[in-house]
Task: structure prediction
Amino acid sequence: MRLSILDQAPIAGNETAREALMNCVKLAQAGEDLGYTRYWIAEHHDLPGLACSAPEVVLGYIGAKTNTIRIGPGAVLLPHYKPYKVAEVYNTLATLFPSRVDIGIGRAPGGSAEAANALSENFLQQVWKMPELIRDLLLFLENDYKSGNDHAKLSASPLPEVQPVPWLLGTGSKSAILAAENGLSYAFGQFMSEKDGHEITKQYRDSFKPRKKGDSPEVILTVSVFCAETSEKAEEIALSSMIWSLSRGKGSGIKGLPSIEEAKNYTLSAEDKQELARLKEKLIIGNPEQVKENLLGLKRAYQADEMMIVTITYSLADKIKSYKLLAEALKS
Result:
């Protein structure tokens, strides 16, 4: 089974943003050593506790600090940007790191309404134009874009020998159909979707239209996993992430990812306990055998070609250990 990493550059309560970004590098290096296929970093804006507002900058640094693992944004939020500039950025990365660059494409705002307005004008109108934005981006990446009435050719230089591989990311039917219509590979965010992912990925496969000869549908399933030597330890390291999510949802202002001890001491109301139980339903938590069984079951159910793992822990050591145990379990 192919495994990959999705990182959100979380800032623990005892860390600076710089330390969190250096942890991204260490995670990518560990993933490369463990045989993970790709390292993607999310794009979020104005979200306290996350340091991933500029994935294209972080990816340049990570690419220089690794050798073989594929790198990409998970995802570049296209409604905020002009497709031409996005193509220039990722063509540059693909020129620097040949045959290693993906470009995940998304359409979420990635933060507050105020952040969306500060990033771009008319965000909602741009979301409606998403099919057009994707078509333009693909034409720029393929160096096949005709611009203006005179059809002058416009190149998103530098032009790499191997272009970035585009993926469309999503959590619902609209994104799945859009990916299929454009012959794109599709990454389904199971960890953040409340919808029937089985039906959505089936829609994608059934509707897929090859962009060029030999193309076939390809699905990454993104899941949230916490793996440790024992199920009890896995529950502990997952608690920090769950309490942090709960706190952010309530706007209670925990600064950074709480430690395990802080998470254990967090005062929970009856409503909080219900919300934690709901959050936990989307997580895979356990020892290596338990996690392996869960992931293999999901892979079969979704007919996924690859599993992308997001793991948010207070301790970098716990995070890397989780990825290590998972990789070893699935190799056995």
